[in-house]
Specification:
There is one protein chain. The chain is α+β, with helices and mostly antiparallel strands. Helices cover about 35% and strands about 20% of the residues. It has 15 helices and 21 strands. The strands form 5 sheets. It has a 7-stranded mixed sheet with strand order 5-4-14-15-16-13-17. It has a 6-stranded mixed sheet with strand order 7-2-1-11-20-19. The termini are far apart. It binds flavin-adenine dinucleotide. The site of flavin-adenine dinucleotide has 38 residues, from helix 1, strand 2, strand 13 and helix 9. Keywords: Oxidoreductase.
């Protein structure tokens, strides 16, 4: 299906994180060549969660020319070096998925293989001792990478943010409007289609008709255009990702500002803790077929660090993805395109990635089916690999203490994940496919952290004799320790950013 009408008017339906991220970035990247209008209803609230990000968000900010210190002040952000997982592989155990590299490669072989050999010999401590991000996170420290020490681990500190989702949307709205985006407030009550099924316009409650050539559906779980109108269809993944609800509640800050997200496994799901400058965001993600809503709410409320600041709010979702995220002249971005669950904080990244993919395939001269097909293939690949990574956290466990964990431990898993697990078990190797989001070391940390044990290691790792191997590891551990010593406390780093405003 091809349409040769040139694009002039872009309509974004929805003003949550997805809508305003799309508006801000398209207004910047498309340089005022199109009219961009965002339609949102003050009566229909946004999901209001989505506070933990991954390092790619910095690319988004850079593309927009955002001043990072200002961003941190305006969104009450803190810095994030990774995610701590408590009680996942086994009750009482913890590990962290830290961003960034471990140690350093030798003879082109990844560091992890050397560590694995030493660990298999019983002579190496936990792999986190060779990760600056993980050791700094444990110590509550943070600094941005230092550009004047190119050979030091301090030059490579990938980080992300914890941010207030409401403030973030407001910040992006200010940015987008100052770059020419028009905003229409009101509820969309009707969607009009052309004879070929393409969307022609949306009609607001007050009768205003907003017409467009390209529609970006950012209407959240309602999926107003992509599903309610175009009936695109949805692939349900709840047999692999059984969590389908969450209670969320903010509470008063207490204790130190942690530079990482905490994800604690619970009897039928898990609980997040995300510390911001002014409050802590908390939520309990659970599987409704294994736990009642009341029990899930009471687990959350009984496990807060500080006094709750509101009543808990419930969110329902179905894990999975839209059959096509681009259908006719509608591109679904954000929750309207699907949702896995927030365990690895990937949703905001997927919004960013969808926008940059759309810019890559921008239908300037009309809609070409080959472009749309390629866009959808890339989108599916990205989502499916993230899905596998999240499933791994549930499946690779020794827990059988509740029916939920027993189900996850024994459930069938996608073939793509099975292959990764088998390869890792045999040799500790992970092969990153194409440009899938999570790199080898991300997978390795989670695999090992969840208790999956590699039987062997790469043969090149045995070219060092035992003393050389342990000296190599010892030096790196030493350097990482020294680097952490000179880093400032996370709380002090933020205080300096705030004070400079
Ligand atoms: P919404 O926020 O729901 O916005 C929808 C918009 O559409 C609203 O402005 C609404 O007014 C508008 N709208 C709807 N219908 C109409 C209509 N008829 N007329 C006019 N306007 C309409 N992501 C992360 O990256 N990290 C996380 O830590 C994270 N945690 C999460 C935890 C939970 C429990 C959930 C459910 C999600 C989480 N996410 C997280 C995902 C993240 O919240 C979303 O990706 C992000 O907020 C984008 O939402 P959205 O803009 O697509 O939808």
């Amino acid at each position: 299906m091809t349409s040769t009408t040139p694009i002039r008017n872009i309509v974004i339906v929805g003003g949550g994180t997805a809508g305003w991220m799309a508006a801000a970035s398209l207004s910047r990247l498309l340089q005022n060549r199109y009219t961009i209008r965002l339609v949102e209803s003050d009566e229909i609230s946004t999901v209001g969660v989505g506070e933990s990000t991954i390092p790619m968000i910095r690319l988004f900010n850079t593309a927009l020319g955002i001043n990072e210190d200002e961003f941190v002040r305006e969104t009450k952000a803190t810095f994030k070096l990774g995610i701590e997982f408590q009680d996942w592989g086994k009750l009482g155990e913890r590990y962290m998925h830290g961003f960034g590299t471990f140690g350093q490669p030798l003879w082109t072989l990844e560091f992890f293989q050397y560590w694995l050999r030493a660990w298999q010999l019983g002579k190496a401590p936990d792999v986190e001792r060779y990760s600056l991000n993980r050791m700094a996170a444990n110590a509550g420290k943070f600094m941005r990478p230092s550009t004047d020490m190119p050979n030091s681990p301090l030059a490579d500190i990938p980080y992300a943010f914890h941010l207030d989702a409401g403030l973030y949307a407001r910040y992006l709205r200010k940015y987008a409007e100052s770059h020419g985006v028009l905003r229409t407030e009101g509820k969309v009550v009707e969607v009009r289609q052309r004879a070929d099924g393409f969307i022609d316009s949306v009609v607001m409650e007050n009768g205003t008709v907003v017409a467009g050539d390209l529609f970006i559906d950012c209407s959240g779980f309602r999926a107003l255009l992509i599903e309610q109108t175009l009936k695109t269809g949805f692939e349900d993944w709840s047999h692999w990702l059984p969590c389908d609800r969450a209670w969320a509640v903010p509470c008063e800050l207490s204790g130190d500002l942690l530079p990482y997200t905490r994800a604690t496994a619970r009897p039928a799901g898990w609980q997040w803790r995300i510390g911001l400058q002014h409050r802590t965001g908390n939520g309990h993600v659970y599987a409704s077929r294994f736990m009642s809503d009341d029990e899930a709410a009471s687990i959350l409320m009984n496990n807060l660090d500080g006094k709750p600041l509101a009543e808990p709010k419930m969110l329902r979702f179905m894990p999975g993805k839209r059959n096509k995220t681009w259908n006719k002249n509608v591109v679904a971005v954000g929750l309207s395109s699907g949702f896995l669950e927030p365990l690895e904080s990937t949703s905001i990244f997927q919004i960013q990635s969808a926008i940059s993919r759309l810019v890559g395939f921008f239908p300037d001269a009309g809609f070409r089916q080959a472009d749309i097909d390629e866009y959808n293939l890339q989108s599916d690949f990205e989502t499916e690999r993230i899905r596998d990574f999240i499933i791994l956290h549930y499946h690779a466990t020794e827990r059988n203490d509740t029916p939920f964990w027993d189900y996850c431990r024994t459930m069938a898993i996608p073939e793509t994940l099975r292959r990764k697990l088998d390869l890792y078990k045999s040799s500790g190797r992970v092969v990153r496919e194409n440009n899938e989001l999570f790199a080898e070391i991300g997978w390795q940390q989670v695999l090992h952290g969840q208790g999956v044990r590699a039987q062997g290691h790469h043969p090149l790792a045995a070219l060092l004799d035992e003393k050389e191997l342990l000296d190599f590891l010892g030096n790196i551990e030493n350097v990482i320790g020294k680097c952490v010593d000179v880093m400032p406390a996370h709380r002090d780093f933020i205080a300096a950013v705030v004070a400079a405003g």
